[in-house]
Amino acid sequence: MKLPRRFFQPLATGAPAPFRDLPVKLERMIHFVPPHNEKVRARVPDLAGTVDVVLGNLEDAVPADQKEAARAGFVTMAKATDFAATGTGLWTRINALNSPWILDDLFTLVAECGDKLDVVMVPKVEGPWDIHYIDQLLAQLEARHGVKKPILVHAILETAEGVANVDSIASASPRMHGMSLGPADLAASRGMKTTRVGGGHPDYRVIADPAGDAARASAQQDLWHYTIARMVDACMANGIKAFYGPFGDFSDSEACEVQFRNAFLMGCAGAWTLHPSQVAIAKRVFAPDPAEVAFAARIVAAMPDGTGAVMLDGKMQDDATWKQAKVIVDLAKLVAAKDPDLAKVYDLG
Ligand SMILES: CC(=O)SCCNC(=O)CCNC(=O)[C@H](O)C(C)(C)COP(=O)(O)OP(=O)(O)OC[C@H]1O[C@@H](n2cnc3c(N)ncnc32)[C@H](O)[C@@H]1OP(=O)(O)O
Ligand SMILES: CC(=O)C(=O)O
Ligand SMILES: [Mg+2]
């Protein structure tokens, strides 16, 4: 283990110092763009103002014979738009560490657009050693290309081994931005019997005891609850952010919304959007409910220094509920700063 005092030292001479605290950003959705697809890429300048993060995907879903086109498309896309001006993050998902493409992904992207790249998403992270490797390599590349601010790292939690090591992945480096659940690869890695990309499964249920001839009550359970809970705890314990990943059935917006909302309530900051139809869902879900914001604002106002006990509408409030309220009010302020319509609804002054 690295000595605490060395944790925040740059890993290469000339590389920027790691952030002490993560930049505070609204990241309700990480919108996936296939950079080898010229038609979709052409939509990115307009898209940039409407999503919180644009991610150019180089990994799965890009055919092997188009990996180079995707990489080149990402560079074109990064140079063509001033993402920072619209408050939009620019991320990429690189190929896996054991693939033949990862070195060229990082060498090309940091050289060509390292100063515009906010976050590198790393797939199939198995343990802290994967993060240490990327951390060192990014530092060397940042130093070589004079990159001014550190490029952050986001891990996908999508292997059984990764879940077993989730805490040490979250604490592996000050470069860690957060983590996303990868339900498709994770299902395969665990030997789960589903072909779905995220969401529930109708056969994963509990049933009530038999009671004579009456039909036994039965309810579907959440396949992802355990993993999301572990991911959120690992992330929040280390001051980084947790995200739900993809919801693959674009035709079922209702189920997508329920999956996103469960993740939001459990502590996730956002989710992936793979199709334009999912952007509005993420915007709806990853902003707090106005009635909840109004109640939270009353709690904060009723306990100006955050201590003591008061009653509001018959409900006891104390230091702990003040902290819950603060989570909601702080998020509402972040949303309001970007969304004038919601700013009016929240009315937080
Ligand atoms: C398990 C995992 O790893 S998940 C992450 C990997 N997967 C991805 O990144 C997939 C990202 N999404 C996509 O590539 C596309 O949405 C596809 C290929 C799945 C489907 O694309 P299409 O068949 O074109 O879908 P559809 O016809 O419904 O698209 C409607 C419009 O939205 C556009 N569109 C589709 N996806 C996107 C997107 N991600 N971003 C912006 N625009 C998009 C289409 O180009 C089309 O535009 P048009 O109306 O001008 O023709
Ligand atoms: C998100 C992802 O990569 C997966 O589900 O496998
Ligand atoms: Mg995957």
Automatic annotation (TrEMBL):
<protein>
    <submittedName>
        <fullName>Malyl-CoA/(S)-citramalyl-CoA lyase</fullName>
        <ecNumber>4.1.3.24</ecNumber>
        <ecNumber>4.1.3.25</ecNumber>
    </submittedName>
</protein>
<keyword id="KW-0456">Lyase</keyword>
<dbReference type="InterPro" id="IPR015813">
    <property type="entry name" value="Pyrv/PenolPyrv_kinase-like_dom"/>
</dbReference>
<keyword id="KW-0479">Metal-binding</keyword>
<dbReference type="InterPro" id="IPR011206">
    <property type="entry name" value="Citrate_lyase_beta/mcl1/mcl2"/>
</dbReference>
<keyword id="KW-0460">Magnesium</keyword>
<dbReference type="Pfam" id="PF03328">
    <property type="entry name" value="HpcH_HpaI"/>
</dbReference>
<dbReference type="InterPro" id="IPR005000">
    <property type="entry name" value="Aldolase/citrate-lyase_domain"/>
</dbReference>
<dbReference type="InterPro" id="IPR040442">
    <property type="entry name" value="Pyrv_kinase-like_dom_sf"/>
</dbReference>
<dbReference type="GO" id="GO:0047777">
    <property type="term" value="F:(S)-citramalyl-CoA lyase activity"/>
</dbReference>
<comment type="similarity">
    <text>Belongs to the HpcH/HpaI aldolase family.</text>
</comment>
<feature type="domain" description="HpcH/HpaI aldolase/citrate lyase">
    <location>
        <begin position="31"/>
        <end position="270"/>
    </location>
</feature>
